[in-house]
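Trying the structure run again after the queue cleared.
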Amino acid sequence: MTKKELIKQLEALRSSRVITYITGDRQPFATKIGADITPIFNRHLEKIGYKQEKISLFLFTSGGDMMTPIRLIKLVRSHCKKFEVIVPFKAHSAGTLLCLGADNIVMGKLGELSPVDPTTMHPFNPRNPSPPNQVLEVSVEDLNSYFLLAKEKAGIKDEQMIEVFKQLAEKMHPLSLGNVYRAYRMAKILAERILEIHMDKNKDSEKIKNIINALTGDICIHGYPITRDEAFGLGLKIEKAAGNLDKYLWDLYAIYAEDMKLGVPFHPLEFLDSGKDSGDIKYSGAYIESTDLSDQFIFSGKALRALRDNKPAVDINIDSQKWVKVM
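Done. Tokens:
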């Protein structure tokens, strides 16, 4: 079946309207959840119409901008009574935040969420020793793990942690440390605000607290796969896809994976026909689609044969990367 046919099959099975959002992790065309998707989603939602009984977001992503989920959740929920997310495979980091805003999370056999552990960039972050002009990213997880190492392995007591912090501050700029802590607080606050959109903050306060602690603190391994059984154990409303539902959601993901060559190592020669010195690059790195509309994030450019150190090489020149209305 085609993508459109599979989307219609999912809509029939879920008694819902379906929008797909796929980002890719294939370098050098990797994409992430970004703030630029909100008006694109609005186009699809306007086409679908207001007062829908249910809207389902079919999602595959490794993460991205942490502020986008709450905007997108509120936008989608303004068009429907019930919002659910369908996870065939990965919905990591910011993708997990999107799932937290759903009344229901449908997960396939390979579906997985992850901890919400932002990685930060800041002008005062440490420099890469080689090349020294490159600023390194700093993750919340790494900072938390440093203090856990001091406590659990070095036996540092709480009253001695000030010295551990001073040693860290001698290696990292205080503004960089402050930025990491801001990201940590942001992840917790966003998770709380998103859960409270559809949960009772008084009646469900303990459940909300447990979910937040698990996703932003207790599980501190970047990319740790939270399976559907574990997600259910955290208190999230999880539905296990089975039968035709499981088959259709995986078939739909597989079409996107094939189109984007997910899991296939990139080689520049794929853009060059045999014997030619140049070739056009056109690669779809992300999709937002519904039954009647399609938007794709397209990388365009040229691949050129070259010599580097007297060895054959291929130069990849990307001229543009932007969302394009395909339909």
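Residues 3-114+223-265+284-296 form a domain with the 2-enoyl-CoA Hydratase; Chain A, domain 1 fold (CATH 3.90.226). Worth checking whether this holds up in the mutant runs.
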